[in-house]
Design brief:
The complex is a heterodimer of chains A (about 350) and B (about 350). With about 350 residues, chain A is α+β, with helices and mostly antiparallel strands. Helix content of chain A is about 30%, strand content about 20%. Chain B is an alpha/beta fold and about 350 residues long. A five-stranded mixed β-sheet of chain B has the order 2-1-3-4-8, sandwiched between helices. In chain B, strands 5-6-7 form a three-stranded antiparallel β-sheet. The chains are: A alpha+beta (about 350), B alpha/beta (about 350). At the A-B interface, strand 11, strand 12 and helix 10 of A face strand 2, helix 8, helix 9 and helix 12 of B.
Chain lengths: ~350, ~350
Amino acid sequence: MEKTLDKARLNDWVAALGKTGNWEVHAPALEDGVWTYQPVESEVSLDHPNTKQPPKGFAFPQKEIFFSFEQIKGEPARLTEVKPQAPQCAVFGVRPCDGRGTVRMDRVFTDHVADPYYNARRKNVAYVGLACNVTPAPTCFCKSVGGSPVSSEGLDILLTDLGDKYFAQAVTKTGEALMAAADKLFAKVSPADKKSVDKAHADALAQPQRAVKDAAGAPAKLKAAFDSPLWEEMARACIGCGICTFLCPTCHCFDINDEVTGSTPLKGNRVRTWDNCQFPDFTMHSSGHNPRENTGARLRQRVSHKFRYFHENFGMLQCTGCGRCVSECPVGIDIVAVVNKVAEHVG
Amino acid sequence: MINIQDIRDTAKDLLAKGEVRGVIGWKAGTRGMDAEPVVITAPEQADELVWDPTCYHNLALYLVEDRKFLAHARKNADKPIGIVAKGCDARAIVVLMQENYFKREDVYIIGVSCENTGVVAEHKLARQLSGFAASAAAFAGDEFSFTTAKGEKKVPAREVMADRCLECRNPFPKEHNATLGEDKTGRTLAAPFAALAKFEAQGGGERWDFWERQFDRCIRCFACRSVCPMCYCDECVVDSIEMKVLPDTTAEEKANRIRWIERSADRSENITYHMTRAMHLAGRCVDCGECERVCPVNIPLRLLNNKMEREARERFGYEPGASIGGPSLVASFRDDDPGDFIR
């Protein structure tokens, strides 16, 4: 389904979705200098660069409680299952790189293993994407990893900004339902609209970006470079923080802990939280031995997961080129430069 | 103004004469205008070194890393390691020496003065360049010069400098083996603790609401801790890397391992983490401001550390990083100590 929507009517659409009682709408908003997804009732303006955090938390929150426990002395322990409270969410303004991130998260948590918590949330989230027909950020590289600034992969609707209106393309049945919920606000696509959107997409694709030089060759090159001394050299400045992976739209490693919330009686929750391959205790064995004991081995793991292991497991690169790990790294570690350097080194 | 060639020549000379085993400095980065930390070990690498307003990093962190590496490899260094240090970096080195983390003779400090400038604050620059990214930055007297797609753009340094640099009074590394640039100690571009004073003018309720909002946003990436040269503990309160499970470790011992702060990134745990860090930095933080710069969700962490720093100054006349031989704030006792609980 393809329609157009006057920009002045965007807020009406958002309000209409809210009024159906079925949808909670979230959109990027600037809070304390940070673009974050926030719940909105009607005020939406889609003029954001990419958000600081990808939308992965809608289906895979940083904290997920599996069950709670309580132990009263002399009584058997009581366990209470906690099911995800997941209202239907329409997330507006998702950029194509993050849409493609969603596809990769689904492969891990839906196709590979059906994770009940992820899926309970995922089936209730719809992504209303926004094509990047603006100058890309200096750290964007979606085109070189198989994506595009106008890709609709993983999205339910792709909006393209045509100046005074949006070109709205429903990609899924959910997307069609979202548009149908406010059918009267949308207009038919004219031949001129079609021409404009084609031009906007062509212009967006023509924008220069940085590039991973040979992404298709990366899995083999990374395999060949496994024992290279380059890793330690390239990670020399790494401080071992978790920015690169926590902000990644496709990083999905997690940890499970029992967290105590009270002692009389003893009670608490079994909690899943995001974990991070850059942390020193990530693969540490209970003996104290760590097979990835330095930042070089951890950088290799992160880069190899994105450009090799995921490809071996699922037949696609995991990296979508959003550039967050590049722009946010405190010391300038740059996955594009790393993959290119490895390729050059291996030859 | 410092000529970059002087830094390169100094490093080259030290390496060529074998006086140091390496020099920690900055090189040009790959992602845009930002410099990156680097350790060079051969004289011919000295030409990679750069000095510009994107040399944000407190390189004292890499002295800590070097020391940890040596300890892990059970090696002793036969020579000192060189480091290019700004005023704040040098203050951090002094605190580390005061705490006996390494000795004065282990380090050769090539001090660089920020003179009347400092480093760029990216968010301020973004406003000035109205969306255009700079591919390079350079010092130009009291101005910064940026290379953009639209050509060279000069901006008065004060308009785009980090708050930490505006409030800095010691842009000259007092502790050094060699220095480059003019000594501008005591300069005042902004009142010290200006941001803190502005924040504290609000009521308690407003301040608490503010902090709740800030800490709710924390994703616990621990970049603030990981970038801090003072956070050198082998085992931090947030990770339990020293807990070794042996064949005779009981289930109870495993279950009862100390976890002051849970993994969940929620308000209570986040506040406990940040408060713990602030307390551990009291009398040690030299206000290099790196924690605030690296925070991906813009939590103004300097406010916490500045609060502790100002308390130390006002109550005890104490300034961290002033002298290697001087007493440290929390490990010394004076007869005129204003507290009575300790007598």
